[in-house]
Design a protein that fits this description.
By secondary structure, this protein is mostly beta strands. It has two helices and nine strands. The N terminus is likely disordered.
Length: 172
């Protein structure tokens, strides 16, 4: 099975890149200056994937690591798509810029790119694993309980799904 070593490396790399930063005060962990919520958060996601005539529904999870630089956030996520005669598993490393000059809290507009590992297994042929790149744009809303809902569009540039529409919810 060729995917197992690649998936192991990808998970290890994600764990290293998402290791918690040094301890923060409570005020720093929930800083919402300019509408940017910089605390670490975990969420779930679902949506539609379109790739080379395969159109599965995907489910997954994301980890909001917080800002790496002002207005730049790293959000690794994993998605598994099932249906339409194929299985697609994608591990994304999203890097997104928050456009704080265009919207105000509770809204959050962002755009960026993602390096990804993509595993595709159509039912009738051998699997394929690719390193891909995509661009994304999304809109997020922070609710009164500080949870966040999102809608995101992702366009594949190289060896990635052609189109993804994702809805998500960040719990904490």
């Amino acid at each position: 099975m060729k995917i197992l070593p690649l998936l192991t490396v990808a998970i290890a790399l994600t764990a290293v890149l998402t290791a918690p930063a040094p301890a923060q005060t409570a005020a720093e962990a929930t800083d919402t200056t300019d509408g940017v919520h910089s605390s670490i958060g975990f969420g779930v996601r679902t949506g539609y994937t379109g790739w080379n005539g395969i159109n599965p529904i995907h489910f997954g999870a994301h980890l909001k690591v917080g800002e790496l630089f002002p207005n730049v956030q790293f959000t690794p996520n994993i998605e598994a798509g099932f249906g339409d005669g194929a299985t697609i598993i994608t591990l994304n490393g999203d890097l997104a810029y928050s456009f704080t000059e265009f919207v105000e809290r509770p809204w959050h507009l962002y755009g960026g790119g993602s390096l990804s590992f993509n595993y595709v297994k159509p039912d009738d042929i051998d699997s394929e694993t690719d390193l891909g790149f995509s661009v994304l744009i999304g809109l997020e809303r922070t609710f009164a309980n500080e949870h966040q809902g999102l809608i995101e569009i992702r366009i594949g540039v190289m060896d990635s799904p052609d189109f993804k529409l994702t809805f998500g919810y960040t719990l904490f």
